[in-house]
């Protein structure tokens, strides 16, 4: 199976997400499994104000790209093809934003030394 990253963009801060959206996020791995795919990993990001960007030697506070939507989280799925990955991405609970799907060259968890 091919791995895809699903990037979640929201205009609503994570702490302001309605409980039903948070519950839907918690149920998403099971729903993905029911489609015959698998969620490999997932993570939520703190608000963009906590980001630090680096451009060459310049280090600045804030996200690299500023938009109305912010990158709120990412999850990685194994799906048989792009169509299945898109079907999974469409199930992502969103309040006011969208998702982006990108095929991955490879996803590995670094071993701790």
Automatic annotation (TrEMBL):
It holds the Pfam family YCII. Coiled coil: none annotated. It comes from the Bacteria. Residues 3-107 form the YCII-related domain. Belongs to the YciI family. This is YCII-related domain-containing protein. It comes from Phytohabitans rumicis.
């Amino acid at each position: 199976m091919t791995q895809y990253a699903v990037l979640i963009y929201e205009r609503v801060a994570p702490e302001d997400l309605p409980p039903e959206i948070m519950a839907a996020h918690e149920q998403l791995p099971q729903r993905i499994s029911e489609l015959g795919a698998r969620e490999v990993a997932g993570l939520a990001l703190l608000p963009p104000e906590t980001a630090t960007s680096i451009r060459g030697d310049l280090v600045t506070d804030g996200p690299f790209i500023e938009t109305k939507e912010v990158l709120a989280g990412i999850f990685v799925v194994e799906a048989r093809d792009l169509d299945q990955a898109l079907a999974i991405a469409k199930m992502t609970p969103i309040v006011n934003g969208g998702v982006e799907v990108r095929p991955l060259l490879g996803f590995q968890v670094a071993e701790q030394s």
